[in-house]
Structures are given as C-alpha cells and as structure tokens.
Design brief:
mainly alpha
Length: about 70
C-alpha cells in the first residue's frame, strides 16, 4: 500500500509544473496545435494506463500473498 501512495504522490507532484502555469495560454489556430493536443492527451492516457497496471499488479500480489499465508 505504501508503494501505491508513493506512486500517486510522485505523479501528483510531477504534474504540477511552474512552466506550464506561467504562460498566458496558447493559440488553437496554430498548425501544430492538433498534433500537440493529441500527444498531450495520449501521454495522460499512457500514465493512467501505467498507474492502473501497477495498482492491479500490486492488488493481485497482495491478494496472492494473503492467500498463501492462509494455507
């Protein structure tokens, strides 16, 4: 459980960036805007998938360990 908390904390802290919060905004009519938005949201989806994978793996491991101790 500690591992999950540290992973969540690391993701939360790394998602806050002073550089991102410092700019005024961006132009949605620029030619690269669509590609950059796709890359950005794809990276968010990849992070969510990785966290989900790690959580499921940790839960299965914990469940298997508790089942082995009962035997």
């Amino acid at each position: 459980m500690r591992t999950i908390k540290s992973i969540i904390t690391a993701v939360a802290l790394s998602s806050i960036s002073a550089t991102v919060l410092a700019h005024e905004g961006h132009d949605h009519s620029h030619w690269s805007s669509d590609a950059l938005h796709i890359l950005f949201y794809s990276s968010l989806a990849a992070v969510a998938a990785a966290i989900s994978f790690l959580v499921v793996k940790q839960l299965k491991s914990t469940k298997a360990n508790s089942k082995n101790k009962e035997l």
